[in-house]
Structures are given as structure tokens and as C-alpha cells.
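FAQ

Q: What does a record look like?
A: Structure on top, sequence underneath. For example:
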């Protein structure tokens, strides 16, 4: 056991700077609970996922398509780490631990072997294993009271852990651990505190407070759905084999329908020159956590409403502000800039920043949780988040009511007016993605849902 008082007494005045760095190390260990394990193992202690594929072919194919197999090699994760997090960690002592810490979840085998920083994906090192089969199936629990910052307990070796009793293998031993069938298992990476003590990922904590969490609906029930199949090629078929799809925000089918929208008007007819008030209710109908969740600073979710007359003219309807403090970050403004700390990281003098809201039309409602750097500026660097703005995301089974006031043009032609409301999701802020040279398919907007009403135009 380490006794802090005896350590302090052992320092001389000349060793003052050493004392400071020792204290910093203790803080790092406190924040990143499993850093003690860095360098404990070798790559040989962990099987590659391709080895697992020889017996678990179907499961492996699912996993290989998922983001779990790309946590290190995915283009945005690579760019974010090597072009932002790593240089920032070496420049700013406050965030120094992210050089290793990012890899605790994105390249955990590299982290556990002390291969820090790992070679880039193009060099095809074992860091490319990303979040491997063997890593997950040798986890037996977590340290502490709250799962976060890769504080899992891993026991690599001949024994692989699962949740089904009675299994046999000619290649490895099989043991059962109920931990793999808990939300806390997911929380070890899907909760994260940054060096400033801010919860910059809290998907498990959001789930815990959700109606789904309180009803016992687990993360795995939505992201590893059970189906009748075999987990081993030509093996026994079961009704409830967990599919290793891990489908989430990077799967369009998962995004579609996750939010519902209902649109209402305060009149059954549209009168030129009069005012029409519209109400849109946006509901998180499916996710057991907020939308967006996880790295919420990277995501954009917004509501767009427009009217189209009988001649095809389109009228964009901006949302009515509600007037609460911090709302200015939640209504799209094409002239607003943010992410100035990218200039700090890259050493760009007088960096103006990047368009805050990407391609979101002016006046649209944005459902976001702003991440703010130590200077109060919106940041894309979650490790550099010193505070959070207003949490205006879509919480589980919660509806947000938005109003739109349309001053109907006096020359609106006769016929019908169609009022259309749609919720969109971008996985990355487009302006940031373009600045960092990320391919368009990584940030192209996805329609989550839409609704419309058709009203006749009358003169009286």
C-alpha cells in the first residue's frame, strides 16, 4: 500500500519537481483506473480475432463488419488520435494521460502490452486488433464501484469466458462469467471521465437512469440481439445466441426510427397574410440512452421544418427560441464558429475556428450537449472538456416540444401547403470532418424520421 504522507516527507526541497510529477501520476491512476496494467502483458498473451474465426465463423463475420473490430482502424478514430489527441497530450501536461488512455478502449491489447503510442493502422501491427474477441472474452469484472475508463479486469490465457453453461472446446477451456451479461461490462468503455473530471461519455450511466434500464432491458438486448443460430460452425443450435452485430450509430438502420416526430398546426387552413403556429414533438422512442450518446461532442442531431406551396416554393421555418441560458448553442447559426482549440493543438496562430454547426440550416433546432474547453469554447476534443453546456439531447422516452411561427406570405398561391418536419443525424460535424479531411460518407446526414401535414390555402 502506498502511504502518501511518508512519500511527501521523503522529498527534499531540491526534489520538488519530482514530487509534483509523482502526484500527477497518482491523479492519472485515479482517473484512469486500470493504467497499472499498461505493459503487464505481451501480444502473445492474446489471440487474434482471425484465430477465433476458424471455429466461430458466423460470429466473427458479424464482429468483423461492426465498429468493434475498427475501434483503432476506423478513419475518424485514427485521425482524432494521431492528429489531435496525441500531439495535444505531448503539448499540454493536463491531458498527457490520453496518449496511453485513448488506447485503453480503442486498442486495449496494445495498451495492456505497453505499445504506446501504437503504430498507425497502415503499418498493420497488432494494435489493429482493435477491440478483439479475446480481449472481451477474457474480461471477468471491473475494479471499483462505477465502470468507466477501461477499469475492466482481464485474465488472458487458455480459458475463454462466456455466459452459456455446458460448452466444450478442443482448442481452449470454457468458463462462465455472468459479468458479460451485464450493462456494467459495456460501461467499462462506454463511460469516460476526462482529465478535468467531466463525464464525456456516459452511455451506461444514461441507461441506468432510463426506463429501459430500470425495467432490466440491457445494452446487449438492443446491440447484441439474441437469435436462433449456432455460435460455433456446425455446432449446436440454440434459440438465444447473442449476435455480435454491435449495431449502433454507424448503422443507418439503427438510426432510422430511433426518433419519432409528430407535427401539429393551430389551424386547419392557411390564410395568406396571417400567422400559423406549428408544434413539433420529437421523441426518443427506441434508445435506452440519450440521442446522441457516447462521443456526443462529435454528433449533430437536428430538426428541420419547411413549408411548400402549390407552385413548389419552399419556406424554411426557424424554431421559436425558448429563451433559456445557453440556448444560443442549440439553434443553428451559420456564422458561429467553435473548435478554436484545434488551432491550439496544431499550433495555428489566430485560428478563427471552424463553423460550429456544419451544414445545419440557420434557425434549426439542434439536440446537443455542448462540450466546452477551459476557455468556455465549444470543443470537439472530449479530453479537453472542462465543463458542459445545457444538455438538450433526446432522453429515453422523452419528447421535446418545439414551436414554429410562420408569417404566411400575402401572395401565397391557392392550393395546398405541405408542411414537412424531419429529424437528421450526422455522425460527425461536417465542417470539422471536412477540415480534418474525413470522407463524406462518415458525416453525411441520415434521416431518422419525418412527418408532414397538408393544409388548404383559403382567402377567407
Amino acid at each position: 500500500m502506498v502511504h502518501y504522507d511518508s512519500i511527501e516527507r521523503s522529498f527534499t526541497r531540491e526534489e520538488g519537481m519530482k514530487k509534483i510529477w509523482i502526484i500527477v501520476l497518482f491523479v492519472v491512476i485515479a482517473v484512469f483506473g486500470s493504467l497499472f496494467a499498461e505493459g503487464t502483458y505481451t501480444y502473445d498473451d492474446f489471440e487474434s480475432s482471425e484465430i477465433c474465426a476458424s471455429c466461430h465463423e458466423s460470429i466473427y463475420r458479424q464482429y468483423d463488419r461492426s465498429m468493434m473490430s475498427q475501434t483503432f482502424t476506423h478513419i475518424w478514430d485514427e485521425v482524432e488520435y494521431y492528429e489531435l489527441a496525441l500531439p495535444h497530450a505531448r503539448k499540454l501536461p493536463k491531458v498527457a494521460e490520453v496518449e496511453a488512455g485513448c488506447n485503453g478502449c480503442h486498442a486495449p491489447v496494445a495498451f495492456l502490452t505497453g505499445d504506446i503510442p501504437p503504430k498507425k493502422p497502415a503499418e498493420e501491427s497488432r494494435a489493429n486488433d482493435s477491440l478483439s474477441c479475446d480481449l472481451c472474452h477474457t474480461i471477468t469484472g471491473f475494479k471499483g464501484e462505477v465502470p468507466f475508463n477501461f477499469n475492466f479486469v482481464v485474465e488472458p490465457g487458455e480459458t475463454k469466458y462466456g455466459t452459456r453453461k455446458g460448452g466444450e472446446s478442443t482448442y481452449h477451456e470454457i468458463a462462465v462469467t455472468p459479468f458479460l451479461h451485464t450493462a456494467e461490462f459495456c460501461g467499462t468503455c462506454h463511460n469516460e471521465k476526462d482529465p478535468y473530471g467531466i463525464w464525456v461519455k456516459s452511455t451506461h450511466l444514461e441507461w441506468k437512469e432510463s426506463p429501459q434500464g430500470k425495467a432490466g432491458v440491457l445494452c446487449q438486448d438492443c446491440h447484441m440481439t439474441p437469435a436462433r443460430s449456432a455460435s460455433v460452425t456446425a455446432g449446436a443450435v440454440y434459440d438465444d445466441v447473442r449476435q455480435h452485430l454491435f449495431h449502433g450509430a454507424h448503422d443507418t438502420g439503427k438510426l432510422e426510427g430511433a426518433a419519432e416526430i409528430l407535427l401539429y398546426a393551430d389551424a386547419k387552413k392557411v390564410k395568406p397574410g396571417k400567422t400559423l403556429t406549428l408544434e413539433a414533438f420529437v421523441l426518443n422512442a427506441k434508445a435506452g440512452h440519450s440521442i446522441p450518446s457516447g462521443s456526443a461532442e462529435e454528433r449533430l442531431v437536428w430538426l428541420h421544418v419547411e413549408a411548400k406551396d402549390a407552385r413548389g416554393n419552399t419556406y424554411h421555418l426557424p424554431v421559436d427560441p425558448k429563451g433559456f441560458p445557453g440556448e444560443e448553442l442549440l439553434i443553428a447559426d451559420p456564422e458561429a464558429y467553435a473548435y478554436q482549440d484545434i488551432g491550439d493543438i496544431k499550433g495555428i496562430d489566430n485560428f478563427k475556428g471552424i463553423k460550429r454547426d456544419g451544414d445545419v440550416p440557420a434557425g434549426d433546432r439542434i439536440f446537443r450537449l455542448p462540450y466546452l474547453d477551459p476557455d468556455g469554447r465549444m470543443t470537439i476534443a472530449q479530453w479537453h472538456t472542462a465543463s458542459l453546456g445545457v444538455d438538450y439531447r433526446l432522453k429515453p422516452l422523452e419528447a421535446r416540444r418545439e414551436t414554429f411561427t410562420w408569417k404566411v406570405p400575402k401572395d401565397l398561391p391557392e392550393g395546398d401547403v405541405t408542411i414537412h418536419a424531419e429529424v437528421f443525424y450526422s455522425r460527425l460535424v461536417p465542417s470539422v470532418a471536412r477540415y480534418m479531411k474525413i470522407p463524406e460518407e462518415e458525416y453525411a446526414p441520415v434521416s431518422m424520421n419525418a412527418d408532414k401535414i397538408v393544409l388548404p390555402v383559403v382567402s377567407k
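Q: Is there anything notable about this one?
A: The first strand starts at residue 139 and ends at 142.
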